[in-house]
């Protein structure tokens, strides 16, 4: 065990697409502008600089996505420190091939 340096679990965008069929919490940590430009329907926009304000149910599993996977990994680490079970989506929206919607 690595103590504080726990690896962030991650999944691919295709794995995420399969999991979207079930109820889940998906946080999009991109800027509101990027989010409005196109996001996954179930995604809730919580920009990385506001991730510390996230207040979800502590026993829910949280999935985090951004544009490439870097910001979401950073957000996932912060959420893990806050006690959430977090999974990062590798490759982010740049790898996403499923449906997206624009606007809020």
From TrEMBL:
InterPro entries named among the record's database cross-references: GlpE_sulfurtransferase, Rhodanese-like_dom, Rhodanese-like_dom_sf
UniProt cross-references to PROSITE patterns, sorted A to Z: RHODANESE_3
Official protein name in the record: Sulfurtransferase
Domain of life the protein comes from: Bacteria
Location of the Rhodanese domain: 20-101
Species in which this protein is naturally found: Enterococcus alcedinis
């Amino acid at each position: 065990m690595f103590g504080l340096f726990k690896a962030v679990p991650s999944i691919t965008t295709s794995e995420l697409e399969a999991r979207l069929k079930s109820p889940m919490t998906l946080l999009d940590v991109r800027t509101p502008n990027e989010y409005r430009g196109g996001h996954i329907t179930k995604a809730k926009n919580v920009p990385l600089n506001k991730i510390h304000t996230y207040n979800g149910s502590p026993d829910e599993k949280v999935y985090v996505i951004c544009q490439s996977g870097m910001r979401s990994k950073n957000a996932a680490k912060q959420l893990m420190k806050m006690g959430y079970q977090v999974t990062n989506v590798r490759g982010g929206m740049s790898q996403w091939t499923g449906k997206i919607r624009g606007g809020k």
